[in-house]
Amino acid sequence: MKRIYIISSLFIGLGFALDLQGIRAQEAPLSSTIVFQEIEGLLVVEAEYFYKQTHDEERKWYVTHKGNLPKVGRDEDAPHIFESSNNAYLEVLPDTRVTHDDKLIHGENFSNEPGKMALLYYKANFKHTGRYYVWVRAFSTGGEDNGIHVGLDGTWPASGQRMQWCEGKHKWHWESKQRTEAVHCGEPWKIYLDIETPGDHEIMFSLREDGFEFDKFILTKEKAFVPQGLGPKVIVNSGKLPPSFEKVAEDFKPKQN
Ligand SMILES: [Ca+2]
Ligand SMILES: [Ca+2]
Ligand SMILES: [Ca+2]
Among all ligands shown, which has an atom nearest to the Cα of 208? Predict the structure, then answer.
């Protein structure tokens, strides 16, 4: 009897400690088996369906949806589940550089170099080769949560570095611009990946600024295409797309505890 008591209190204590540290939110990838499918020059992927994450010691991507609200250190803005595609998104946390006054620490809350911190991996199958422009749907509330890098098959080409958002603050917003010396807010048609062979490829993203909120991305061969609203529908090649997450109202606030 005593042993049962000790074991059960151990579990309760452990559960409490895990919850306090927000480890509950560090869930495994929602699906490790999905391969997304490019159709007619368009690939559409929900950010939350990455299959792997690495280099996550300093910063890590957390899935946010109604049933999973990560608490992992500093994060000053409210969840933005409302009007996110699939009612879920990723945020790279903690977010210790919120404004320009917070210290910029390379390798901790910022990485101008791609492929160094908080790497996300997605599997995709392509029927068509060529140049694909990358668009990402992001939610930015400040000037220090609006940059990311994109890569392909273990490489980080110059055309995938420093994706930048300036417009569309405080709402989900599609963008495809590269921050350059000349234009800090980013230049269009400079963010692209060249798919040289048909078949399976790996699309990757890595941290540039902490607190970045990442809903969905597309790759499109059509230069003039601008995704609107929630963006096009996701198509999978293999694996099963889980059911959508629960919708929330515009005034949704997490419970205080
Ligand atoms: Ca945040
Ligand atoms: Ca930040
Ligand atoms: Ca999403």
Answer: 2
